[in-house]
Write a structure and sequence with these properties.
With about 290 residues, the chain is mainly beta. It contains 3 helices and 12 strands, in the order αβββββββββαββαβ. The relative contact order is 0.19. The N terminus is likely disordered.
């Protein structure tokens, strides 16, 4: 797996500099106002690929109200209506302070967790001109605070409820239909559950988008973390879905083996596996004002 990820990484950054000029997206939620005519826009339709963040940032003064929902697993059977009887949810607000810089706040029912983050677009992909750039690069950082009540004094310390995530997102739009993104990720957990888990996690993620129609695409994301960092309980997350854009709304419908909706949860705390049918249906709903 490591070899395949490395090959993809090399492929993106050794890709030819020439690229067909893309037509700006009509989506008003993203930073699609080009500084120069050769800027590549709408690498992704949303600020998320599926679970993971994308390189996209909101436009200046745009407010995104976002609801994320994950139902139970399909293998629970008809009695649980194939997972629809159980659900976790994240609700959040995201705001573009400038065309490159955005912030966000949210709360998820899983662990009664609050999260805050910021994203800054460092570089923009271009097709030609004096500042020819083959990729878009965005930096992402977040902090989560778990407020679930515990019965043991060890788990009640304030610092033990905090976790931190940093990512560099590298994406390239190869043509009007296909985009690919790499996500080197670092997570620090102040408190871990068992001795076989590491406080520091280094992971590599990959995500992509293939456009089917003007307003619909197939998306996926996957994170690989070595088992000695995760511990025996957790697995690597894989999510596959469809994006549907309808003006100011973006619907993301998908299947995933992770119930978590923030990086600390889906990268480091995914319990289910696709092989055993631990697959959940979920959706993200975005409305921009």
């Amino acid at each position: 797996m490591k070899q395949y990820i490395l090959l993809v990484f090399i492929f993106i950054f050794s890709a030819g500099m020439a690229q067909t000029k893309t037509v700006p997206s009509d989506s008003s939620m993203l930073d699609t106002d080009p500084v120069e005519s050769e800027d590549v826009t709408a690498t992704f339709k949303s600020t998320r690929v599926v679970n993971s963040q994308s390189v996209e940032t909101l436009g200046r003064h745009a407010l995104d109200f976002r609801i994320m929902h994950r139902f139970g697993t399909l293998n629970t059977g008809l009695y649980q209506l194939f997972g629809l009887d159980n659900a976790s949810m994240r609700m959040g607000f995201e705001y573009g302070l400038s065309k490159r810089f955005m912030i966000g706040l949210g709360r998820t029912t899983l662990g009664k967790t609050y999260d805050g983050f910021f994203k800054y677009k460092i570089l923009k992909q271009t097709t030609s001109g004096k500042k020819n750039m083959p990729v878009t690069v965005t930096f992402f950082a977040s902090t989560t605070f778990k407020t679930l009540r515990y019965n043991t004094p060890r788990d009640s310390f304030f610092a033990g409820k905090l976790d931190y995530t940093s990512q560099l997102l590298f994406a390239r739009k190869f043509n009007k239909n296909f985009s690919l993104q790499l996500m080197p990720t670092y997570i620090h957990r102040n408190l871990v559950e068992t001795a076989d888990q590491q406080n520091n996690i280094f992971s590599i993620g990959i995500g992509g988008r293939y456009k089917l129609t003007k307003r619909m695409s197939v998306n996926f994301d996957y994170f690989y973390t070595s088992q000695n960092q995760l511990g025996k309980l957790y697995n690597n997350p894989l999510s596959i879905g469809i994006d549907i854009e309808t003006g100011g709304h973006v619907f993301q419908l998908h299947f995933t083996n992770s119930h978590g909706m923030v990086e600390k949860q889906f990268v480091g705390e995914t319990i289910g596996t696709w092989q055993k049918g631990d697959i959940s249906f979920g959706f993200n709903l975005s409305r921009v004002f």
